[in-house]
Amino acid sequence: MFLEEIGEEFLPIEQDLVFVNGINDKLLGARVDDFTYERNPLSLAYIPYGVGKYYVRGGVNGGKTQAYLELVEVLKERIEKDLSNGIIAQWHDESHINRYIIDLVEDKDYKILSASYAFPQNFDPFLPYSCKILMRDKNLFGGHDFMRGVVSTDATTVSRARKLLSFLKTKTKQLLKCLIK
Length: 181
What we know:
Layout (H helix, E strand, L loop, with lengths): L16 E5 L34 E8 L1 H20 L8 H12 L5 E4 L5 E2 L13 E2 L7 H5 L7 H26 L1
Parallel strand pairs: 1-3, 4-5
Antiparallel strand pairs: 1-2
Helix pairs in contact: 1-2
């Protein structure tokens, strides 16, 4: 959800790719070894302790067409290879994006935006960032399992799922009306 105006700083004008820094960054005293990088050496997303500079969020990123398509293709190949070996990285695509950034250092120019552009809904409002883009709490919309298609018969989950579907239908109808005008 956008809470402030987003300007050209969000666009990859001079850089090939744009990523958003996670809340657990150095400004808040986190050390690289504290980042929740993938630590399983069997995963293609693996990042050993002592390696890395940033921890970026998986939900907000972008780039110039060719560079971004290359990112997506590399992530797809790595995730499929991990899956074929029975491995799912701790934070799924986010883990692979963080590995990709480490591999890019000399290859492509990229920009890291502050956590303002992916501010978690359930975080302390007194963090040293303004909140430009609020990342909604998945638990309010059925939770991680629901969003991944895992079926649950739990009454609370089913209720949240119905609310989410109703919300999505309403927003889709509104969008279609705007597009048809």
